[in-house]
Amino acid sequence: MNVKRLFVALFLIALFTIAVRETLDPDMWWHLRTGEYILQEGIPRHDVFSFTVPDHEWLTHEWLSQVFMWSVYRVAGLPGLTVVFALLTAVSFFLVYRVSAGRPYLAAFVVLLGAFASAIVWGVRPQIFNTLFTAVFIYIVERYRKGEAGARTLWWLPVVTIVWANFHSGYLLGVVYLAVLTLGEAVEIVLQRRAPLETPPMTWSQIRGLAGITAVSFLAAAVNPNGPEMWIYPFLTLGSSAMQTYIVEWNSPDFHQRIFWPFLALGGLGVVGWAFGSRRPRLSDLLLFGGTAFAGFVSARNIPLFAIIAPPIVCRALVGWLGADPRLAAFLQEPVSTPRPTVRQTTLHAAVLALALVAALVWTLDIIAGNETAVAENFPVTAVAYLQESGLAEKHGYNSYNWGGYLIWEGIPVFIDGRADVYGDQFMLFYLQAYKAKETWEEPLTEYDVDYVLMEKGQPLNSLLAVSPDWQEVYQDDLSQIFVPVN
Questions:
Q1: Which of 43, 262, 290, 376 shows a CA-CA span of 20 to 30 A to 204?
Q2: What's the pLDDT at 197?
Q3: How far is residue 67 from each of residues 200, 414, 418, 466, measured CA to CA in Å?
């Protein structure tokens, strides 16, 4: 094993290690229960977990993700989910690395920066499959653009889309990626600009083939239990004003928080590479880079899309700039062959690799060992135990939006949970009347004959309930409070 191969191995280990997270996504719990329900009863068409909107349609666009998650849980529990989803994340970014210029060092740095940028949404959640399948699209298309794969390889994209559309409605990301790429390459030829490109443009034959694959991929998304409804569903989600206003992930990133700085750094590197490079970028690269960066500025939830699409584009820009220096050119190119390492070097490399593997294992085991404590610090574990012991769990409760998934996991009917698309904007706004302690805060509690309120400690609603003669506190811990009506 030479130095560069050792570096790549360490890079892959690093990707996995930083992706290992506690199982703290609030929606993970209802995803697991949904997977169990699907295997036992089939795919639900209407809500089966709340007592408030059982008549609402439920388009289970993530059904295969949920079955996958439940299957992993049945075999390996929460530790298994932690490891499997870290592996999926690592594989996603490694695929992007494999088609990025400047391997191994520059590409690894840029891809790792993209990984840190997208880490804001990492965890055990179906959205990770969006990252994975987007990476597969990028891997196939980039190899096709470079001439490393033939036109037949593109026919894998509709196949991937079929799988993707059954894992998540984010399949539209792949279709849009292909459409923007096709448009950009077509305009590039039509304009016939003479300034030298970073890489040669596609031919009309290639563009027509890519356009056909884009159309077939879009049609292929209808091959799922929900049929053509999957063509419309992503737009319904994007059009939800309540989701975009009140769900934190849909808000614009707050750059006072350091977790968003890698997003800025990745975008800045691309701009610097183009500003100082001697060759102009392809229009398709500009459209993809600019479009996904803009989406990330609009909503933090979109940053992972930029983080997975941008690295190959940024690497091209940086190589185009730095590669002009003869002293850096060799450093930025992956060598065709390298000298055979000596026995001493091989031994040293093996020791370093073993040390890295041990460190990754220790880190993973430490995360797994602390997972139960982390869950108890973020979810109402003891409060739910009180509900079950007191008999309140069988009654109608008003619960925190963030805790609805955990209550579903514990078999408790919920007022609301993370399935905002199921509840709809009108109901969510009605729910928020109480949650935000508005003047009409009592209406949701009265209309649904609420027998208890379970909220995070210190919420505005708790303050109202504490001074109301109609309610009394029956439980409190460091995390939560429970109120019941006064008889």
A1: 290
A2: 59
A3: 44, 22, 18, 42
Question: For residue 480, what are the β-bridge partners?
Answer: 456
Q: Where are the alpha helices (DSSP H) in 146-170?
A: 156-167
Pairing of strands 452-456, 480-485: antiparallel
Give CB contacts under 8 A, 24+ apart, made by 35-41: 35/66, 35/67, 35/68, 35/69, 35/70, 35/71, 35/73, 36/70, 38/63, 38/66, 38/67, 38/70, 39/67, 39/70
Q: Rounded CA gap, 61 and 58, in Å?
A: 9
Assess contact for 89 and 298: CB atoms under 8 A. no
Tokens of 86: 């870290």
Average pLDDT of the residues in 410-420:
96
Is-contact 81 124, C-beta < 8 A? yes
Q: What pLDDT, on a 0 to 100 scale, did the predictor assign at position 229? A: 87
Pairwise CA distance, residues 7 & 349, whole Å: 10
d(CA 181, CA 80) in angstroms, rounded, equals 37
Which amino acid is it at 475? Y
pTM summary value? 0.92
The average pLDDT across 449-471 equals 96
Range 186-194 contact pairs with CB under 8 angstroms and sequence separation of 24 or more: 187/283, 188/282, 188/283, 188/284, 191/283, 193/280
Domain extents for the chain? 3-329, 380-485
Place of tokens 């968003």: 260
The per-residue pLDDT of the chain, averaged, comes to 92
Give backbone dihedrals phi and psi of 45, rounded to 5 degrees, phi first: -105, -20
The pLDDT, as a whole number, for residue 277 is: 83
pLDDT digits 0-9 by tens, 179-221? 999 999 888 888 765 555 556 678 888 889 999 999 999 999 9
Rounded to an integer, what distance in angstroms lies between the CA atom of residue 483 and that of residue 292?
Answer: 45
Report which residue type is found at 432: L
| Rounded (5°) CA angle 346-14-348 | 15
In terms of Cα–Cα distance, which of 173, 104, 86 is closest to 137? 173
Q: What is the mean pLDDT of residues 219-240?
A: 83
